[in-house]
Fold this sequence. Notes:
The protein has 615 residues and is mainly alpha-helical. Helices cover 57% and strands 0% of the residues. The protein has helices at 4-19, 23-30, 94-102, 111-122, 137-147, 151-161, 168-181, 184-193, 201-213, 217-229, 236-246, 264-272, 290-294, 301-313, 319-327, 333-341, 348-360, 365-382, 385-396, 406-419, 422-435, 440-456, 470-477, 494-505, 513-522, 529-532, 548-559, 563-575, 583-595, 599-613.
Amino acid sequence: MVGPFKTVALAAVTAVLAFGASAEFVMAQQGGPIRLAPLPPPTQGTPYTNRQDARPQPGAVVVEGLDSLSEDALGILSDESGGLGNDMWAGSRRIDVMRLLRDLPESYSMRAAYILAYRVLATAAKPPVGTSDGPGMLDLRIRKLAAIGATDGALRLVNAVNARTVSDNLAAPAVRAHFRNGDFASACAVVRGFQGGYTEVFWQQALIVCQVFAGKPEQAAFGLDLLREQGMTVSPAFSAAALSASAGSAIEIGAPDSTASPDEMTFAIWLAAKAEIPVWLVETLEPGLLPALVNTPEMDPELRLAAAHRALRHGVLEGPELAGIYGKLDASAEDIAGALDAPEGVNDDRLLAYFYLAAAARIDAIGRSEALLEAWNRSREAGGFDVVALTTIALLRDVPITPDFGWLAGDATRAALAAGDNRQALDWYRLVLRQAPIVPDLARAAAALWPQVRSIGHPEPESFALTAGTGVTAAVTGQPVAAVAPRGPVPWNAARLERWIDLARSDPNSGDIGAVLMLIAALGDPVDDAQWRLVSLGDAQPVIMPDAASLAGLSRASEAGRRAETALYALFALGQSGDGPHASVVGAVAQALSKVGVNDVARALVRDAIVAEAP
């Protein structure tokens, strides 16, 4: 058994051997934590900044309230930049919040859930009441931001504490974020500046990863020996990779016995050693590990594309970021045209990229609209409509929404809905409605799209109710006159819903009609018994449901008005529900979020779930 004194001594020896007894190492130990590497600037917003579920953009660090000196109050989102409010923890107890943060799911199949997780973790807010008896909330929030793949957000939050240095209590989450971002130089700079001792298994592994990255195999071998001597448990895959790297031999990544993702330190040492990453690994990785593959320009292009597409689907990547990767592909106009003519000779990921590049190359509105329509139709056949919609939505903004382009309106509405661009979806749908009386195809599109656009067409909670003149009318008639409720861009229409039900029942490819009705009702629409009678019973399919404690917590928190706590329970429910959360789960989450005022996410979740049911 290794005693405490020996453990510390071995760690000190490891640290010295890790970086050499050089002046650089001595200065790092004496000069305090290392300076953070420069962070990239925030992504610029698009012209449609009022999109209901657009990813919030980091603003100024905001610390308000009585606990303004507490690190836990720090954040990179304010009310103006997408935060959930300085009072979002009101009514919550710290002990409950810490438990929820520690176990928060780190992967979400719905992009709107990822955005909600980002907002909860990055918002500047007065912390919940209660005493601190361990790691602070800030440490956990940074860890979880990195774990879900929001590595830049995690590092901005570290930077919010001190723009010049990384404090020891935040060093570990900063290193994890840099590893997951593929930035080993910055990660190892933080490791060198750490002054808290290297006694924990994480720090021992981090040292070995940095030794491998620095090309010091003999020190990595010694570090691995120390791990064994101290009885520290690491994954066999990490040990095997460290052993291969220290021996100067290539790391072999064999097919796993299961679909389980490698742990973050094993993945880090693979990348540090420049191991050959197989493409099949992309589908097994936790989404939070994908940024390292996406951010490495020298990575195999096919693997990088596969990683970028999966990251996009999980919310880790945005459409403009993926479009930037497409723009760096080594593909000529002839290559793209040839691939579109003979797609069987191109892999699916590259084909999706070529759909975007072909549309982007067309500058005139007519040419672009034609290329967009072809991209959307062909990507449905290739199973990548969601990816193409998210990347081409910016290109669609250059097509005027006029009667001349009515032939595109139905497909443009679908693409905008799939991309989460509510503003464009509503604008194109209005064009569908205007031309539906004279164009049969658009009449059908108006009916087919109604539940989807209704999910985003509710009036805003702060909308102006029509009250003008009601006082005068009441005085004249002697009868009370109620204010007229505000109308949203897509008012409730029972007849349109019934027409959609008839259309869906006649389409063998339509999704679950009952699921759509449940989702519409979750936002407060009056789906009645007569409409439910049109839905057949007994077609249930096996589904993955969240645990009872998460659903009970969701109900308790929302009834009590605890906003951020409700959001955390919602993330548990969605994160535990597999690749496609059931309508009952999405509906329960949407209702709970609406109760605490997070209406934009509630609608986005319902919209995305209804879009998923569309043929």
